[in-house]
Automatic annotation (TrEMBL):
It comes from Friedmanniomyces simplex. Residues 1-47, 310-338 are annotated as: Disordered. Fe cation binds at residues 277, 279, 365. Keywords: Dioxygenase, Iron, Metal-binding, Oxidoreductase. PROSITE patterns: FE2OG_OXY. This is Fe2OG dioxygenase domain-containing protein.
């Protein structure tokens, strides 16, 4: 049972699909009007709107940029991998004080099932807000290394082998599952297990044959958890979604001010991209969190403060030039104008989280680049490793040793329905002021790196 953004108790309420640009979906979810304390204006947002030309041009510039530039450009927000945060770019970030975390050590310890000291002696993670885009928060390196590995195990061994979780492969293939594993809490054999290697994946239509190694190496681009969008009927099914994996839910809810109700696990190889889009299909404006694992990515976010007055024409240009923050009046020759952009470029590393809230919740965003050879050393050999089976250490998943060295995995978690408590007076339309939810409702005057 859920409560819709309009306060009606129903299931599922106006349940509309997440807006994935690698979807070829052409249904038109109902436009919704929302109000937010943190957004100065909520326009009708349609999941099928195409990114404005200003965003597309800017995205392309980052897609085409030389990799070497990522180390030298001053306009990339790169918090580095320094846990003390000495390298945080102060000119673009402000530190959010007292983020009101639950006891992170406890949250991490519980996620690890109590068999790890990962939660011991941890400093409170630092949180930064992008100055140019209030509500866009970065939690650099928030996940400890053993927890990142455990999260990969849970998502890709356990959750991927759960037939209730849809993937892009299911759109075109009948996906078979391995036998339930006596030693792995009853879940089916991981697709990385040697026993799954020869599972017959049958095309539904005229698609080319596929086997498990190729599925894992190239074909698998996303998996859904919790709310499962039905890509064929272009709706959410009227039946309740499968339960959101409990440990992942507790981790997300223990760290971030939101409920974990639906997630997309995106898988990228270097060269894969995610085009500019907005995630506007959820029935509430609560924050969305995005957790990065594996190879580094360039993530861009943009808000068009002033839309173009007429259809714009692409301008060619130096890929290293700043974003096209041009107004219509600044373009010449009757070519039409580009909207005026406010933008942020983030270099995301394994263990980083990004929270999109407030006006940044509905920013255009995308991943123009995933950088090869940037998976951190501790993760490169995943899934190969040893596992204790009945007290005996066994080598596991050797056949895929190094798979993760060529991958980026992004866990993108959304709250779909407004909190009951947030309905009604005081919190407009169930939206939430994330900084208030996190602590004192203020942003510290302290600058990053202070
Ligand atoms: O991979 C990422 O960092 C972003 C993914 C995303 O925007 C999405 O799944 O909607
Ligand atoms: Fe997104």
């Amino acid at each position: 049972m859920y409560v819709s953004a309009r306060g009606q108790v129903e299931f599922p309420p106006g349940y509309t699909p997440p807006n994935l640009p690698h979807d070829d979906d052409d249904s038109r979810p109902a436009k919704r009007q929302r109000k937010s304390r943190v957004m100065s204006e909520r326009k009708d947002l349609d999941a099928h709107d195409k990114a404005p030309d200003s965003v597309k041009i800017w995205y392309k510039r980052w897609q085409r940029m030389e990799s070497a530039a990522f180390n030298t450009r001053f306009d990339i927000i790169d918090c580095g991998s320094d846990p003390d945060g000495k390298t945080f770019p102060k000119h673009m970030l402000r530190e959010v004080s007292e983020p009101g975390f639950a006891d992170v050590g406890k949250v991490f310890g519980e996620f690890m099932g109590g068999d790890s000291d990962v939660g011991h002696g941890l400093k409170t993670p630092r949180v930064f807000e992008v100055k140019s885009m209030p509500g866009l928060l970065i939690y650099p390196n928030i996940l400890p290394q053993p927890l990142q590995l455990r999260l990969l195990d849970n998502l890709l061994h356990r959750d991927l082998s759960n037939p209730q979780h849809q993937t892009n492969v299911h759109l075109h293939y009948n996906v078979p599952y391995g036998a339930p594993q006596p030693h792995a809490s009853g879940h089916n054999a991981s697709f990385f297990d040697p026993s799954a290697r020869t599972l017959p994946i049958k095309p539904k239509t005229s698609h080319t044959a596929l086997d498990v190694p190729r599925m894992l190496d190239k074909k698998l681009r996303w998996m859904t958890l919790g709310g499962q969008y039905d890509w064929t009927s272009k709706t959410y099914p009227a039946r309740p979604p499968p339960p959101f994996p409990e440990d992942v839910k507790n981790l997300v809810q223990g760290l971030f001010p939101m409920k974990a109700e639906a997630a997309i696990v995106n898988l990228y190889s270097p060269g894969d991209t995610l085009s500019a889009h907005r995630d506007v299909s959820e029935a509430c404006a609560q924050p969305l969190v995005s957790i990065s694992l594996g190879c580094e990515a360039i993530f861009i976010a943009a808000i068009e403060d002033e839309p173009a007055p007429s259809s714009a024409t692409a301008v060619s240009g130096d890929p290293a030039a700043p974003p096209p923050a041009t107004t219509a009046t600044s373009t010449k020759g009757g070519r039409g104008g580009l909207g005026k952009l406010r933008s942020a470029v983030l270099r995301l590393r394994s263990g980083d989280a990004v929270l999109m809230s407030g006006e940044a919740r509905y920013a255009w965003h995308g991943v123009p680049r995933v950088a090869a050879n940037t998976c951190p050393g501790f993760m490169r050999s995943w899934p190969a490793g040893t596992e204790s089976v009945d007290g005996v250490e066994e080598d596991r998943y050797e056949g895929y040793r190094g798979w993760m060295a060529g991958k980026r995995v992004n866990l993108n978690v959304r709250q779909m329905f407004a909190d009951i408590a947030a309905e009604g007076e005081g919190v407009g339309g169930g939206d939430v002021d994330v900084l208030a939810a996190m602590g004192k409702g203020t942003v510290a005057g302290a600058e990053a790196g202070a």
